[in-house]
Structure prediction request, 657 residues.
Amino acid sequence: MAGEMLLDVQNLTVQFRGDAGWTSAVENVSFQVGERECLGLVGESGSGKSVTALSILGLHARRTARIPSGVIAYRGQDILRLPTRALRKLRGGEIAMVFQDPMSTLNPVLTIADQITETLILHQSLSAAAARQQAQRLLDMVRIPDAARRLDEYPHRLSGGMRQRVVIAMAIACRPKLLIADEPTTALDVTIQAQILELLRDLQDELGMSVLLISHDLGVIAEFAHRVMVMYAGRTVETAPVRALFERPVHPYTIGLLAAAPRLELDTDRLPTIAGSIPDPASIVPGCRYSPRCDVALESCRNLPPAMGSAEPGHLARCPPRLAALGFAA
Amino acid sequence: MSEPIVQVRELTKEFPVAKGRHKPVMLRAVNRVSFDLHAGMTLGLVGESGSGKSTTGRILVGLTNASSGSVKLFGHEIAGANGTRAIQAVRHRLQFVFQDPHGSLNPRMRIADAIAEPLDVAGGMSRQDRTDRVHELLETVGLPRGYASRYPHEFSGGQRQRIGIARALALRPDFIVCDEPVSALDVSIQAQVVNLLLDLQQQMGLSYLFIAHDLAVVRTISTHVAVMYAGAIVEQAERRELYRAPAHPYTQALLAAVPRMTPGRRAEAAAAGEMPSLLSPPAGCIFHTRCPHAFAPCRVDVPAMREITPGHAVACHLYSAAASQAA
Prediction:
């Protein structure tokens, strides 16, 4: 397992202003990312995985979002209490981000060279000529063929896969220690996804980066992450080393999710399902948030918020009844 | 075997693409596609963006017309000069389910009216019959009848997709083209909708053309699978056969690239590069620019579709007689 913790998030709660006052999109979420480690954050819509990631970069709008409690410690420094200038220095420098849609990161009226050199000039105070040279090296690193020519092209001339490579080049421009990748391959075709995942894996090794990978795709998580955190309706339901999570899932939601995903290697004629749908954040039950859909829920599950309990070392689940049934003391 | 309900032969669709002030260039989105679909079967049409799978589906239900080739639906030719008239004769027997459950419902129309719209267009139904039919359809897709008077924004993505399916079923069709019906849905909801489609097929003897990019979903729902690449079908077989013994290098690359839920295993980027532009496709086999097995004939001749085992056809020079002679 990975060594020293690069990122240590404790009891993070993020709320958004809505019609009915402040609603928690993420509640009491804690996790760590070690040096050179990849933590996979998995969950369905509304689970709070993207909200969590955006909080690390302080990217929520002040007027509509607030973080009433929690600590986001990056190398021992609480990001939430950092002055804006210091946060800006961190963002794009030591902590970089890749989003799902490359066009939300790329400026359509700037050339590829302009987009990449902007980061280099801002964070590394390179001269324009040196930055351009460095930009070309970065395009080579992300395996864009004919990099010298591509530098002067505009994003619309590139395919989706090539655009995402440019975004990755921008992200790694300042050799970040932590890369936050939010659904980085979701918009791509599967053969291109395989290329991008291979690229990210190689870059992670080469640069010694830690990665926080957010995905709804359990296959991507299984292949890429060292450890996995499963979120449901704003809460962590299970955290485990990747193998333990896929081979010995504990939480009924994790079990249900793994069963519901169709498998490429099996001829099945029916998929196991999870009844019901994801709860509306404004109307959440007091107890376990999964209890309305859970087929093993007890009366107590509906009323009492469940505590996180330990199954094996490093394997935690928020389901006391299941842990007890498996012989682990809650 | 009985007559196929859908018979597609050499179907081709070209779109004019304006390039600046020059004359428009023709983009061949669908290139000589042929397949049969028999009653009760589900043909999974799988491929990546730009493979032509959605265009093929749209031609089949008359949402766009073919440039050349033949499309016979229930014995009626809809691709030729009299296509528009011919499709009127079979229209009530075919339906379409779209990918986007948000975009395909009119936000100002109550669910009851959205579902009953095909009934209203067909006409000849009393008010009471119409209401009863809407309630019956809601129950068929697993929604309470009380939802009839609500508006689309009150529903989740999965529920909207059920509403879309209810509307598609209104006129009791025999054949439904489903274009990425579950790809916008979360995993747990996706499984519910896939099962619903499977149940409906059993109950009503429906046939589906199921268009999707997700190979695992296609494996679950299809009886037969056709793989498309850059406008052409490159391989076609019964589901079990296609996934157990994929023959075309593209199918193999596609399957190898899918991340599995098996920690420790790594998906393989077996197809290098990207799909060529359809405005200037390469000569020979359209996949040869990315194919790890490409050899001389692939760069010259377009490979024909050949049966390698009964019911399993592939368009690849590796399996042609010329190749075995050259080797």
